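Dear colleague,

Thank you for sharing your sequence with our group. We've completed the structure prediction you requested, and as agreed, I am returning the results in plain text so they can be pasted directly into your records. Please verify that the sequence below matches your submission; if there's any discrepancy, let me know and we will rerun it promptly.
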Amino acid sequence: MTQPDSLAQIGVVGLAVMGSNLARNFARNGHTVAVYNRSAGKTDALIAEHGSEGRFIPSYTIEDFVASLEKPRRAIIMVQAGAATDAVINQLADAMDPGDIIIDGGNALYTDTIRREKEISARGLHFVGAGISGGEEGALNGPSIMPGGPAESYKSLGPLLESIAAKVDGTPCVTHIGPDGAGHFVKMVHNGIEYADMQVIGEAYHLLRYAAGMEPAEIAEVFREWNAGDLDSYLIGITAEVLSQVDAETGKPLIDVIVDEAGQKGTGRWTVKAALDLGIPVTGIGEAVFARALSGATAQRAAARDNLPTGTLSTLAGRGVDREAFVEDVRRALFASKLVAYAQGFDEIRAGSDEHNWNVDPRDLATIWRGGCIIRAKFLNRIVEAYNENPDLESLLLDPYFKGELGTLVDSWRRVVVLATELGLPVPVFASSLSYYDSLRAERLPAALIQGQRDFFGAHTYRRLDREGSFHTLWSGDRTEVRTD
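Please find the predicted structure tokens below.
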């Protein structure tokens, strides 16, 4: 084991693009950075290509890497989630001393983070699960960072993370989220919102393309216009760029040569699974995950294409719909559906925080998501204001500002969902988000009938509106009602 002449303030293990860019970000911000990768070639490549950007200390064994860090040692792991992460954690823990900090900066399942934090804390070390959003560009130039773990560890780690995070109005897009798995849980739901956000943007594009008959370059200009208003966001901005791109080989719009099969790495599914466990209806996020799965069902889609009856389909012209008015309706439906996705995501975060006693503050999340991350958007400032006005807001949709906005959006939202259905164009998140909205505001839901059915076949009982207690009807007997509690 060799001892370097000077020690590093932070270390990065795993030097693929995200890890390499994160290390460069630290170095550019004046920190000495220890770097290690299992394959030495990546370490050498980083130093050769970017060594001039700051001070790096390369290591070729875990032991030398740990020895190159000042105490308390701070090491960020940027390796593949799962077994590879566990292996590196154990290697670091074996070489570290009590009080040192291991940070998992990957997209880990939050329950794994809870387990790891418990195991590592038993060894006298700190373990931080940190969600990092912003992709390759964010890692290099300023991400949004969501660290969990012991509050004590943030005292040492926080200033380093704040120095590299994105800044909005001078505020770093990073804060301590809460204990053990809180950071990775919040990052998971952030990604779930991202799924829904991307899907509703895709549905808006699809309607403009195949209902309004607009070409990609024309739609790109529409999205640029939208990005100058209430829909101002990173995803709307890059959508305009994608739609305006022309394929160099064919001369066609790039969108027309990309296979319509969307990939996913699991965080969307995790969000939906966690929501089911918590009993939180994240319908927009769920439909977005299912839409990606359906896009990948290529054999089924090929078999069904031009082979299933459509019924009588309308056209925009046949309905006498003005194209300009339709484009504006789509914009409003998109905005409304985005609001539902964010509201459902914040509902899930609140439920997860309550379940695990994390005490996550929604104002912190809206603040740090304003810059660096994929779902950064102008209206996050409004979300901060909403929770400042009422930290116990039952639903983001009930905030006076957002309720007022929905009042101006809902008629367009309904028209778009109806028209899309009549045109035979799928809008799963537009439609499910509207259904969620209508369910939330409804005076009565069909759940009363479901409770009656459950009581009939399984004696599961029901409650009444007019008196306290649980009741069961003797369906197979004389159908009298008995109180069961």
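Summary note from our side: The chain has a mean pLDDT of 95.

Kind regards,
the structure core
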